[in-house]
Amino acid sequence: MESKTLEHFKKLFIEIKRNSALENLGRNEEQDLALKSGDEIDQTNRERDERLILKLQGRQRFYLKKVDAALDRIENGTFGECTECGDDISESRLLARPTADLCICCKEEQERGEGHVLYENKSHTLGKQILSDKINPSLVNTNPGDDNIVQFHSKSDLNNINTQTFAR
């Protein structure tokens, strides 16, 4: 990567860190004033706002860690290289997401993997939970032409099969 481009990103990251520090100073002063003013009726709103602020601060800290990592990569001479495959990260990607450490191909692959894990953890029963361990999901039947009825068959013993019908 050209030294002019590296210098641009280095200045950008330093500016992001400086603005974040100034923003935190202003926010702390505002929080102190908010705690000193108001009445008990506003306490719930303040607590909600504080939770939101904490969440946003957590995101900001996470982003600043990425900024620090990008600055380290600039110093090490590896900025703009994919940490996964070693290929160059396109300049257009870096302009859109300066802290990117993966090329677009590796990032897409990572997201596909994450999506697969998230999908596996989701319910395949439209939000309904099967609370009994006696129900065998492989024995689920749906009535043809009737999308609103699902029948679950469970085996309480080898000779007796129970059928339960649920509306979706």
UniProtKB/TrEMBL annotation:
Signal peptide: none annotated. PROSITE patterns: ZF_DKSA_2. InterPro entries: DnaK_N, Znf_DskA_TraR. Residues 77-112 form the Zinc finger DksA/TraR C4-type domain. Coiled coil: none annotated. A zinc finger (dksA C4-type) spans 82-106. Keywords: Metal-binding, Zinc, Zinc-finger. One of its GO terms (molecular function) is zinc ion binding. The keyword Zinc-finger applies. It comes from the Bacteria. PANTHER family: RNA POLYMERASE-BINDING TRANSCRIPTION FACTOR DKSA-RELATED. This is DnaK suppressor protein homologue. The lineage of its organism: Bacteria, Pseudomonadati, Bdellovibrionota, Bacteriovoracia, Bacteriovoracales.
